[in-house]
Design brief:
The complex is a heterodimer of chains A (528) and B (373). Chain A has 17 helices and 25 strands. With 528 residues, chain A is of the alpha/beta class. In chain A, the strands form six sheets. A seven-stranded mixed beta sheet of chain A has the order 18-21-22-15-23-24-25, sandwiched between helices. In chain A, strands 6-9-10-3-11-12 form a six-stranded mixed beta sheet, with helices on both faces. Chain A has a four-stranded antiparallel beta sheet with strand order 2-1-4-5, with helices on one face. Chain A starts with a strand and ends in a 17-residue tail after the last strand. With 373 residues, chain B is mostly helical.
Chain lengths: 528, 373
């Protein structure tokens, strides 16, 4: 008998059927991967099971008995726990305080701290989830915070654990550790639903795979019966190319030279502590690293959105250290921002207006302060065609496009002005497999035409696929440099976590930076 | 294009039409309905009241003239506040800029009276616009440089305008006789009323300032749609982060937008002085509060120049017809204030609702964007 069974769950949002009679059964001691692209309905389904969303039809059974789950409280009472992608922890509180939050053991209104702490230590030991119960959560690494979330679910008595995209923020080593933890949980009799869109995780960790597409379950299989290509086909509904072919790079003269760049961050801390790098024409330099190690600040400093406090940025002999965005655009720097809704597009503008943003003052789009709607439309139609943006016309609002088409729009604008240097931050974030392939091909084509490209991505695989050279950022510094030929996940991952995870330094990696650069300190002061 | 890709944009177009026209109309209807209930409770006949109101606002040329006269300054202040809204700026102090514009118009009117009207009137209008812009410039600079919120600063500048001009017309520019006002302007710089231009019209108070307001509405429309300045104002208003990334200077755009808004409010003052009062007196706008009503007009007009014109006409009609309503149906003119308040409330409620919808959408998008991070 399944511990959790969802029968014909239907969930309708205005204009969209997010779940169309979806059924899913989870057995005791089993890891089921719920695989699908963005918007396939995976998270919706699990939010229904956890009581965050109410269903519009269907039924939920726990241990064979029909149940009503109206809120997360109901779900927790039934033994269902969920770890969200964005952690819901209180940063200034300790690990123990966070875990017991909402279920504090108390006598006469006073929290029984020793008892709470003992219970946390006990659960932590039981499942091999090592964590310091007295550490302040705000100072923990992302991987550790995730453990706290899992411990919290276990503390609340979860037998069924739902993990929503748990690896999105982790380094390769942390991912491996996480899957070790999940294994030990199912061995102890728990059941796990793993929401993911990453094929290798499914192949490596799941007992069973349920594939969703457009709100429906389109197939069910096991890793032994299929391979990544087969899974991708089920997920997307057609054949896909998983990795694009990359030719030899013909790197030329240095285009972008950054020397000892320092950028202040929030709360008086330095976000960049002296970064130096060079990007030459015709090459892609990839920046690998866990989110929040200075990548955003580096990108914003280059394009002029953030003021450096020291060091210099040089563009083909021209100093652009303190240039404003308008000047960097004119100097030939294009920018694909990491957040296309916030930085990349004006969603209330139509496509044509978006396509000239940054060039809107220049000929032929404007002269003497008067815009030329004709010229703007013409260019827009051409770009929309060149970059295969699917839209009925150039006068549709950008907010009405799908994520993939919006990103194509950003690329069309940024590459359309034929930049000398392209800064691409998280260029495939949130895109489906087909759109990712398109973006990757475009970036490589751009490289081959001589553009110098700086690629920043949290997806290590993406950095490794596209880059000719790979720099690893940690704690606001470049801590290692690799040639793409001799880079492997293991060694990059070692530096991504500050060289603290895998034990001894692996052979062959070259720590970057000046000789006097000491081993970098962890960004938030610390692990355990 | 297949039906599937076409229909959402058609739907979106309908939705936009519905919210830009439907919601304001609905707000007005609801406000009238509630106003009727209040009239019934006060023991009067709402049908008689509203027909008297209509009669007073549109019953003949003279009444229409009165409606237009009262709508004219509201059109200009509505356009002023609406322009600020486009850059996501809330120019709550249009009142102060209007007062300064009025004073500027009166002063220049006294100074330039000897010139031929064809020269003096445009110069006075430009001067008054500059007075309004100047009064908005300091709040704009404070916002651009140190982020001081314009709601606070422009409001404070309104009070300063009130007392500053009160002193000026009691001292340096005072008329003889001890009343705090400037001397009467020479007829040469008055904006003529329509009955003096078009033969056959009965005497009325509507003046050429109305045409000026229409021209300004067209101008604002063109600036927003056809110029790089308008493009940048809209970009900053919709999404400052993306605008900044696109090389647009947010501080500069803020300064431009707030100063233009101030200039339009200044024009409203000039139009009143040259067209109606023919002099500046202490608290010239305090009774009617053109600047503050302009906020309501801008909201009801959905920040759209054409919508603002109609909203101003509605408010003008309510104000013009209110007197007749009180006289003929014995219903207090205060009902009009209540109806105006209700209109603003319902328009505001819609703004709040759509703001929540947008916010939820944005959060959902963020969540979706983060799913594959």
């Amino acid at each position: 008998m399944p511990v959790l069974e969802l029968r014909e769950i239907t969930k309708v949002f205005p204009g969209v059927i997010a779940n169309d009679r979806v059924s899913l059964a989870l057995e005791r001691g089993e890891i089921v991967a719920l695989l699908g692209e963005n918007g396939a309905g995976k998270s919706t389904l699990m939010n229904v099971a956890y009581g965050l969303l109410s269903d519009d039809g269907g039924e939920i059974l726990v241990d064979g008995k029909p149940v009503r789950i109206r809120s997360p409280r109901d779900a927790i009472a039934l033994g269902i726990g969920m770890v969200h992608q964005h952690f819901m922890l209180v940063a200034p509180l300790t690990v123990t305080e966070n875990i017991i939050l909402g279920h504090e053991p108390a006598r006469l209104g006073i929290i029984d701290r020793p008892k709470a702490r003992a219970r946390v230590v006990e659960i932590s030991a039981q499942y091999g989830l090592k964590v310091d119960p007295d550490a302040v959560v705000g100072g923990l690494s992302v991987g550790m915070q995730q453990r706290v979330e899992i411990l919290k679910a276990l503390y609340q008595g979860a037998r069924i654990l739902i993990l929503d995209e748990p690896t999105a923020v982790l380094s390769p080593q942390e991912v491996r550790e996480l899957f070790g933890v999940i294994r030990s949980l199912v061995t102890a009799g728990l059941s796990v639903v793993l929401i993911t869109h990453k094929l290798d995780e499914v192949m490596g960790a799941a007992d069973r795979v349920v594939v969703m597409r457009d709100g429906k379950v389109v197939g069910e299989t096991t890793p032994s019966q299929t391979d990544q290509i087969g899974l991708a086909r089920m997920m997307v509904g057609r054949d896909v190319v998983l990795s694009v072919e990359k030719g030899e790079s013909h790197a030329g003269e240095p285009r972008l030279t950054i020397t000892d760049l320092q950028v202040p961050g929030e709360r008086g801390l330095e976000a960049l502590k002296g970064v130096s790098l060079t990007v030459r024409s015709g090459e892609i330099v990839g920046i690998a690293g866990v989110d929040g190690n200075g990548q955003t600040e580096l990108v914003e400093a280059i394009v002029g959105l953030r003021r450096p406090s020291g060091g210099s940025i040089d563009l083909k002999g021209r100093d652009i250290t303190h240039a404003a965005p308008r000047e960097t655009i004119h100097a030939g720097v294009s920018h694909v921002p990491e957040d296309r809704h916030r930085r990349g597009l004006v969603l209330e503008f139509d496509l044509a207006e978006n396509l000239v943003l940054g060039d809107h003052r220049d000929a032929p789009y404007a002269s003497h302060g008067i815009t030329d709607a004709q010229a703007i439309s013409e260019t827009a139609r051409q770009r929309i065609k060149d970059y295969d943006v699917r839209t009925p016309s150039e006068h549709v609002l950008a907010g009405a496009l799908s994520g993939g088409n919006q990103q194509k729009l950003v690329l069309a604008r940024e590459l359309g002005r034929e930049p000398g240097v392209l800064i691409a931050a998280q260029p495939t974030r949130g895109l489906d497999v087909g759109a990712i392939e398109f973006v990757h091909r475009r970036l490589l084509a751009e490289r081959d035409s001589g553009t110098a490209i700086l690629l920043v991505s949290m997806e290590l695989e993406e950095v490794m696929t596209l880059s000719d050279r790979i720099l690893v950022m940690y704690g606001g510094q470049v801590v290692a440099e690799f040639d793409s030929a001799d880079a492997d996940e293991e060694r990059i991952g070692y530096y991504m976590t500050g060289g603290k995870v895998a034990g001894a330094a692996p052979a062959g990696a070259q720590p970057a930076g000046t000789p006097d650069s000491a081993p970098p300190a962890p960004p938030m002061g610390g692990a355990l | 294009m297949s039906e599937a890709t076409k229909s959402p944009t058609v739907d979106a177009w309908w939705m936009r039409l519905l919210t830009t026209v439907g919601v304001p109309l609905l707000s007005v209807a609801l406000a009238m309905a509630i106003g009727s209930v209040i009239i019934v409770f006060s023991g009067h006949d709402p049908i008689a009241a509203f027909s008297a109101l209509l009669q007073g606002a549109f019953g003949g040329w003279r009444q229409i003239g009165e409606t237009i006269m009262r709508a004219t300054p509201l059109m200009l202040t509505g356009l002023a506040v609406g322009f600020g809204f486009r850059a996501n700026l809330f120019n709550i102090g249009a009142e102060g800029q209007l007062i300064l514009g009025s004073l500027g118009a009166a002063w220049l009117g006294l100074l330039l009276a000897p010139l031929p009207p064809i020269l003096s009137i445009p110069l006075i209008l430009i001067g008054a616009a500059l007075f309004g812009a100047a009064w908005a410039f300091i709040p704009a600079l404070l916002k651009a440089k140190v982020g001081a919120h314009e709601v606070i600063t422009t409001m404070m500048f309104s009070w300063m305008a009130l007392y500053l001009t009160s002193w000026i017309v009691s001292g340096p520019l005072a008329d003889k006789g001890g009343i705090p006002q400037t001397p009467m302007l020479s007829g040469a710089v008055w904006l003529p009323t329509f009955d003096t231009i078009i033969p056959g019209l009965p005497p009325m108070r509507a003046h050429l300032g109305f045409l000026l307001a229409l021209l300004v509405a067209v101008g604002v429309s063109l600036v927003l749609r056809r110029t790089t300045l308008g493009y940048e104002v809209r970009a900053v208003g919709f999404n400052p982060s993306a605008a900044q990334n696109g090389g647009i200077s947010i501080p500069l755009t803020t300064i431009y937008a707030l100063c233009i808004s101030g200039a339009l409010a200044g024009l409203a003052g000039a139009s009143e002085v040259l067209g109606v009062t023919h002099r500046f007196f202490d608290q010239v706008s305090a009774g009617s509060g053109f600047g503050f009503t302009g906020i309501a007009v801008a909201l009801l007009g959905k920040k759209n120049p054409v919508g603002i014109l109609f909203a101003a006409l509605l408010f003008g009609a309510l104000s013009a017809g209110g007197g007749t309503m009180q006289l003929e149906a014995d219903v207090s003119q205060k009902i009009i204030t209540i109806v105006q308040g209700l209109i603003i409330f319902f328009v505001g409620a819609e703004t709040i609702v759509t703001w929540f919808i947008k916010r939820r959408k944005r959060l959902a998008l963020e969540r979706e964007g983060a799913t594959n991070a």
